[in-house]
Each structure stands twice: as C-alpha cells, then as structure tokens.
Amino acid sequence: MAERAALPAHIGIIMDGNGRWARQRGQRRTEGHRAGIRAIRRVMEAADRAGVHHLTLFAFSTENWSRPRYEVATLMRLFEQTLQEEVDELHQNGVRIRVIGRRERLSARLCRLVEEAEARTRENARGALNVAINYGGRAEIVDAVRSLARAGQDLRQLDEEMLAAHLYTAGLPDPDLIIRTAGELRTSNFLIWQAAYAELYVTQTLWPDFGAADLEAALADYAVRVRRFGGVPELD
Ligand code: FPP
User: 36 alpha carbon to ligand 1 midpoint, in Å?
Assistant: First the structure.
C-alpha cells in the first residue's frame, strides 16, 4: 500500500536545543526553556491554523532527571505554571490535555494540576495536546503490559491492538510525523510504538527559534512524501 500523505493527523515534537539557544545568548539554560514555552504557543496556533489538531510534545524524559538540580526544579515549576496559565484557553478551544509518562517522581502539586487539567478537558474532542513528562517509550510499553496484567487479561492472547489500547495515547491516531529540532538524528525513546511508521523531519533550528514558518516547512516536506507502510510504491 502506498499513499500520498497530505496533512498529518498527529505530530510528535522532540523540542531540542533550548540549552544551546540560551548559551548562544550568554544566558542560563533555564532561559532557553522559558523561550521554549513561547515557541510551543506559536507552534500550537500554527498547527491549529493548518488543520493539525493532535500534538504530542516531548518535554522531559526519564533521563532528564540527571540534569543539574536547579534546571530540573525550574522545568518542574515551568510545567506547573504553564498548566495553570494555559488550561482555560486550551479548554475553551476544545483541546483535551493529557500528561503522559510516569507520575511517580512528579511533585504532589504538579500531579494535582495535571489531574485537574485532564479531568476538566476529558470530554474535549476538537484537539489533543499530550505533554510527555518523565516519559520513556520503553517504560510506556512496560506500563501498558502491566496494566493489561492488572486488568486480568490473558497475556498469551496479547496482540498489537490490545497493547495499543493500554498505551498512554490510547484512542489517538498514531503520529504521522515526528519533528526534531536542533539537528540530532535520533528518536530518543519517544513514542517508539506509536511512531513505527511516522515520517521524520529534523531541522537544525533550535526549539526556541521554531515558529509558524518552520512548522509550515515541515508540513510542506511531509506533504510530498510517499508513505509505503512497508509496501511497494504504486506505479503511476
Ligand atoms: C531540550 O533542550 C528541551 C528540554 C529538555 C525541555 C523542553 C521543555 C520545554 C520547552 C518547556 C516545556 C513546557 C511545557 C509546559 C510543555 P535542551 O535543554 O536539551 O537543549 P540542548 O540540547 O541545547 O542542551
């Protein structure tokens, strides 16, 4: 099966380069993260205008705990602040918010804000915003299997559909496009199950500099790719 892709239904973004952006300006890395939040807003608006309504943002990996304490603490505070500040508008725009990843190391305050935001926006169906915090793709698959086992499912009958239904992103279309900023050519344990057939788009642009025009460039690149899903291209 070959298919010309027009618009991705779901985009995953590995937002890299905040630290480099700050260093280039002689600022602390945390200033790069603050600028990164401004970029998120621009990109969400541009995605919405373009007709892409599902986004998953990689905000904090299970490996990011090894960063300096001050940086981790600032990031956690920024997650709390941003959730508090943005949830009203996202809710008004019909966006369902989910924070994906393991909750166990998050502060009680952040967990509470996440639970409130998720509960409040649960019924929204116009769009979805997933924010991956303390997230790892392998851990997600392990969690899905544990959740199936807890539900008493017979794991000898496990198939792909059952497993996908227990991932953090259950119910959402798989991402068709993964964007990575700041140039590294790897997927870093991000949505490893869901992105099995995703197109990759890597740009040198650092995340805080990424804006509407960069998203449009990624979409234009995606639109001319022929997706084969393991099949052969059609001769036409
Ligand atoms: C990667 O840049 C970025 C991060 C690890 C954090 C991303 C987080 C934000 C943009 C804030 C998100 C906030 C919300 C509410 C979703 P880096 O620090 O690894 O940059 P470097 O590779 O240049 O050092």
Answer: 7
Q: CATH number for the domain including 61?
A: 3.40.1180.10
- Substitution site in 33, 86, 180, 181 for ligand 1 pocket (most atoms within 8 Å of beta carbon): 33
pTM above 0.90, yes or no: yes
**Could you tell me if residue 115 is inside a domain?**
no
Domain span holding position 47: 3-67+126-227
Write the pLDDT tens digit of every residue in 122-172: 999 999 999 999 999 999 999 999 999 999 999 999 999 999 999 999 999
Query: Which H/E stretch holds residue 129?
Result: strand 127-135
| Rounded-to-integer distance, Cα 220 and Cα 203, Å | 13
- Residues linked to residue 182 through DSSP beta bridges, in sequence order: none
Total tally of structural domains belonging to the chain: 1
48 catalytic, yes or no?
no
Tell me, yes or no, whether 236 lies in a domain: no
Question: How many Cβ atoms are within 10 Å of 5's Cβ, its own excluded?
Answer: 15
Distance between CA atoms of 33 and 92, rounded to whole angstroms?
Answer: 26
59 alpha carbon – ligand 1 mean position (Å): 6
Instruction: Please name the residue whose Cα sits nearest to atom 3 of ligand 1.
Output: 16
From the candidates 18, 48, 64, 154, which is the catalytic residue?
A: 64
